[in-house]
């Protein structure tokens, strides 16, 4: 899995006034849990763009101004309800020998047979929750949908790997091919046209008998 480095400054004061002053200066208050100690730090809001505003997932190296480097993953993030500015970020420290839990993006590969025949691919999961060592977790999880016909489903068991444990029930559906509404609408129109034509054919003999 790819890693990003964020240059940060360790915080000494964590009171409300200090936090407000940091935000006014364009800094984001952050905290790292999971290690022997809790670490408070700040970094410019722009430093988190590649971490937050992306569909991809990354591990993070927090490079503090005192020379300390901490490996972590994003745990939680708070946004301002009106401006959407980042208010606070929580990180969890990670270690080489301890598994972590993350939601990994799912990428479909191949061309579904059902989609070729007019079906539509519908997603139930865009991300799959897994647990494993950070060094073995992929940037994304791939699943081949070539064999899916209309009505077929791809389950989480279809993308299982020895590198991680999937934290969903085995019957959890990732995606499925469903019948297109347009196809249904076209079929209904054809049925209505057929019924109308049959009605006209039935009415025609009645007109002929009355003329006699």
TrEMBL record:
Domain Large ribosomal subunit protein bL25 beta positions: 100-180
Region of interest called Disordered, as start-end residue ranges on this chain: 184-212
Biased composition, class Low complexity, residue ranges: 202-212
Assigned keywords, A-Z: Ribonucleoprotein, Ribosomal protein, RNA-binding, rRNA-binding
Domain Large ribosomal subunit protein bL25 L25 per the UniProt entry, residue ranges: 6-91
Superkingdom: Bacteria
GO cellular component, one term: cytosolic large ribosomal subunit
Biased composition (Acidic residues): 185-201
Entry keyword annotation includes Ribosomal protein: yes
GO BP field: translation
One MF term in the entry's GO annotations: 5S rRNA binding
Gene3D superfamilies, per the entry: Ribosomal protein L25, beta domain (2.170.120.20), Ribosomal Protein L25, Chain P (2.40.240.10)
Family note: Belongs to the bacterial ribosomal protein bL25 family. CTC subfamily.
Summary of subunit composition and partner proteins: Part of the 50S ribosomal subunit; part of the 5S rRNA/L5/L18/L25 subcomplex. Contacts the 5S rRNA. Binds to the 5S rRNA independently of L5 and L18.
Function, in words: This is one of the proteins that binds to the 5S RNA in the ribosome where it forms part of the central protuberance.
Protein name listed in UniProt: Large ribosomal subunit protein bL25
Record gene name: rplY
């Amino acid at each position: 899995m790819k890693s990003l480095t964020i240059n940060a400054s360790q915080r000494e004061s964590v009171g409300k006034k200090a936090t407000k002053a940091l935000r006014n200066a364009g800094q984001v208050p952050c905290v790292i849990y999971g290690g022997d100690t809790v670490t408070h730090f700040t970094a410019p809001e722009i430093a988190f763009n590649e971490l937050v505003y992306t569909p991809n997932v990354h591990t993070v190296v927090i490079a503090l101004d005192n020379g300390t480097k901490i490996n972590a993953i994003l745990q939680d993030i708070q946004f301002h309800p009106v401006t959407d500015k980042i208010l606070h970020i929580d990180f969890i420290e990670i270690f080489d020998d301890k598994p972590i839990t993350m939601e990994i993006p799912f990428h479909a590969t191949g061309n579904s047979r059902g989609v070729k025949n007019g079906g539509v691919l519908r997603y139930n999961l865009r991300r799959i929750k897994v647990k494993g060592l950070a060094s073995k977790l992929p940037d994304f999880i791939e699943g081949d949908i070539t064999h899916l016909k209309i009505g077929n489903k791809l389950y989480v068991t279809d993308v299982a790997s020895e590198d991680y444990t999937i934290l969903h029930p085995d019957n959890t559906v990732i995606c499925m091919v469903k019948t297109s509404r347009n196809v249904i609408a076209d079929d209904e129109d054809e049925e209505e046209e057929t019924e109308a034509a049959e009605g006209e054919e039935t009415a025609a003999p009645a007109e002929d008998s009355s003329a006699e």
